[in-house]
Structures are given as C-alpha cells and as structure tokens.
Design a protein that fits this description.
Layout (H helix, E strand, L loop, with lengths): L2 H16 L16 H17 L2 E4 L5 E5 L4 E11 L12 H18 L4 E8 L12 H6 L5 H6 L8 H7 L15 E9 L4 H4 L4 E7 L1 E10 L3 E2 L11 H19 L4 E3 L3 E4 L5 E2 L2 E10 L2 H22 L2 E10 L2 E2 L2 H13 L4 E6 L4 H5 L5 E6 L15 H19 L1
Parallel strand pairs: 3-4, 3-5, 5-16, 6-15
Antiparallel strand pairs: 1-2, 2-4, 6-14, 6-16, 7-12, 7-13, 8-11, 9-12, 10-12
Helix pairs in contact: 1-3, 1-12, 2-3, 3-12, 8-9
The chain binds zinc ion.
The site of zinc ion has 5 residues, from loops.
C-alpha cells in the first residue's frame, strides 16, 4: 500500500463503520451492547479477518485482532480504542483509533510481512459510560480490575439491566480467575484531540505526555429562603450570593495557576429558583484537573478551605462531597521520545501536550508502557455530529502510528 492506499483503506473503514449506528441527526449512536454496537464489533471482526488477522472476543465483548510475530511470541504490541459512542456522537471519537490500528497493521503486514512481535488491534467494548452509569467497563475487564457487582446493579434509561443487556448481546462477565495479560509490552492509542489547541496552533499531531487527574465535587450551600422585598440586605442568608463568591475564588485561583490547571463549576441548581425569593439553597459541582497529583491535592485543599471560610463569614451551611478522584497518569517517557523522534524525522508539525480528557490509555498506562497521539479536531468539537478531522490529518496520524509500530514490532 502506498500513501494513497493508506488513505483509501482509512476512508473505506471509517465510512463503513460510521454507517453502523448512524442516526437521523447526522451523528452516530452505538451504546454498549445495543444492536448497533454489536454490528460494529462484528464489522471490525470481519475486517480483521480480511486483513488476515486472527480475531477473538473476550467474555465481555472486547475484540482482539492479531498478527502473530515470528520471533517474540510472548510479546505483543497493542493498538486500541473504544467502539462505543455517546448518544448522537461523532464519527471519530474512539472509532478512529481502532481504524488506525487496522490500517497500520494491514499496511505493515502487507509491505513488510509478519512482525517479530505480535501486533494486535483492540476494539474496546466501552469507554463513554453513555448507556450505564459506569465508565471504562471495557478496559477494566482487559486489565482484570472491573467489579462485576457494579454491573450487576446498574440499569439503563429504559430500565434494562446491565447484565441482561450483556447476556442478550452474547456476552457475560469475565471468569472470576481472569488475570491481566503479561504478554502486552506496549499500548498505543490515537484519538481526536476533542479540543482546539492543535488546530489553533496549526499542528498535525499531538504527542501526549500525560492524562490529567480529575476530581469532582458536589457542593451544597444552605442559607435561608425569604421574601425578596421585605428582607433587608443585612438580614439575608442568600445562597446564590455566597455561591458566587465561592465560584469566583475557585476560578480566579485556577487562572492564577495557569495551564494545565482547569477548574469548572458547570452545574448550578438554585432553590427555590424564583424571581422574588431570596435563594435559600444552591447545589453546584466543581470539576478540577491537572497533570500533577501534588498540585491537584494543593488546589483541592485551597478550594475546601476557601469555601469553608466564605461559608463561615456569611453564616450558611456548607457540605462538600468529593465523588470522583482519578490520579494523573504519565505516558511512558521512552515511547514519548520515540514519537517525538518519529515526528521530527518526518518533518511533522507536532505539539507535546497533555490530555485534559480521560481515555482508555489512562488505565492501560498504569499497567503497560503506553503512548497516546492526538490528531486535530476541527473547531475543537466532539461528542457531537459536527465532530470532524480533515482526512489529511487522519492520514498523518496513521503514518505516525505505522512508524512507531515498525520500530516496536519489526
Ligand atoms: Zn473517546
């Protein structure tokens, strides 16, 4: 396959997968264990077969396609991403990473023959958490760290039980004695950026050094609801006013830290939410992310202390509940350097950057030396039918992955 062949295959695979789960709003909806999800995995399986790979599902529906190595049978290089989408999502999130694995390994296999190490494409069953309220089901099963009890108790929006959906789709829980694989030497993932940095800076590749850690909080401020006309300002316990001080303090502090710190108060519920009532209660969320654990810890302490101080000064009740805490995960330094070298040798415009979003690689990287690439997202749009990446940028991404796989497996 020439460069032209790569582009052709890429377009062919992307187009046929994009049709599976295509919805009437121009997007793609492939929720875990739905018919469209199963059809997409089956399509990937048939492509694997056409390429000459052996293919196999695990118990929960992760799909592996393999070209066996000639020399190091116990060493496998895996390229993967997730096949599921959000509701009415785009055509690139997840899918592009799987297609890249297929095209890259096909190209290498057909031009160079069998690799020394095994090469595998991994089409991960679930990452988005868009059907059942749990994320990373697929990769957690790859790693043997999924908790079956979680899936036993979950239902989707239609009341269908997780376990029933899974059984219906032809899959089941992993065997209880399943252990994570020891033959995986490296995990490589390529994904759309889902942000606008590469496009703004005119770069065609992002070399990811780390995936941010995240913390999320539910915060509740309870003051006192009262008449908006007859309650003098001095007698009020206005929960919105207090919340606004907390929001300002947190956001201002995040700005003062600079990149990569981000803090977001994205959801605010006011009660009673009426024009002529002093607001008595506000529930809001805080989402904070950084690539360094100590910094994240320090920022958490600041936010908690500051909210407590403001609550004390204004005489309102405050509860702060951290309901999510994910550690930052660095990518493998050796692989990062290898990718940078590849980009330099091929005269690619690249940017060394962190990922502000979560990806399967953040779990894989905690068990296997891993690397991640980004390609630009036009206007930074994702989780939306308007999600788009220029084909020329997709091709650059595939070529970079080919180069890295060649170094690792041949
Ligand atoms: Zn994704």
């Amino acid at each position: 396959m020439s460069r032209y062949g790569i582009e052709n295959k890429l377009t062919e695979y992307m187009d046929c997968l994009s049709e599976i789960g295509a919805d009437d709003k121009g997007g793609v909806t492939r929720l875990l264990y739905s018919d469209a999800w199963k059809a997409a995995q089956e399509k990937v399986k048939s492509i694997m077969c056409d390429i000459g790979m052996t293919s196999e599902y695990d118990a929960v529906g992760n799909l592996y396609g393999r070209v066996t190595g000639t020399e190091n049978g116990n060493e496998t290089i895996v390229v993967g991403s997730h096949i599921d989408t959000v509701k009415n999502g785009g055509k690139y999130d997840g899918q592009f990473g799987i297609v890249t694995g297929l095209v890259a390994i096909e190209y290498l296999y057909k031009t160079l023959g069998a690799p020394k190490k095994n090469l595998e494409v991994l089409s991960i069953s679930e990452e988005e958490g868009s059907r059942f309220p749990c994320t990373f089901w697929g990769v957690k099963n790859v790693l043997g760290i999924a908790q079956p009890e979680i899936a036993k108790n979950l239902v989707d929006a239609d009341g269908i039980r997780f376990e029933d959906a899974m059984l219906n789709s032809g899959f089941n829980f992993m065997p209880s004695n399943y252990e994570k694989r020891t033959d995986i030497k490296n995990y490589i993932e390529i994904h759309i950026e889902q942000g606008g940095v590469l496009e703004r800076e005119n770069k065609s590749i992002g070399v990811v050094t780390a995936i941010v850690g995240q913390r999320r909080f539910n915060v509740s401020v309870v003051g006192q609801a009262n008449h908006a006309g007859t309650t003098p300002m001095g007698y009020r316990k206005d929960a919105v006013y207090v919340t606004s001080k907390m929001v300002s303090a947190i956001v201002d502090k995040a700005k003062s830290y600079g990149d990569p710190m981000v803090a977001t108060i994205g959801k605010i519920e006011v009660s009673p939410n009426a024009v002529n009532v002093v607001p008595g209660k506000v529930n809001f969320t805080v989402d904070m992310r950084h690539t360094d654990l100590d910094t994240l810890e320090e920022f958490t302490e600041f936010a908690k202390k500051e909210m407590k101080k403001i609550a004390d000064e204004t005489d309102v009740e405050l509860t702060v509940d951290m309901y999510m805490s994910e550690i930052p995960v660095p990518m493998d330094a050796g692989l990062v350097n290898m990718i940078i070298e590849t980009c330099e040798q091929n005269n690619l415009e690249f940017k060394v950057m962190h990922s502000g979003a979560g990806h399967d690689a953040q779990l894989m990287a905690q068990h296997y030396p891993s690397a991640m690439f980004f390609v630009p997202s036009v206007n930074g749009i994702s989780h939306n039918p308007l999600e788009f990446t220029e084909t020329k940028d997709l091709v650059v991404g595939v070529e970079a992955v080919i180069d890295v796989l060649k170094r690792l497996a041949y």
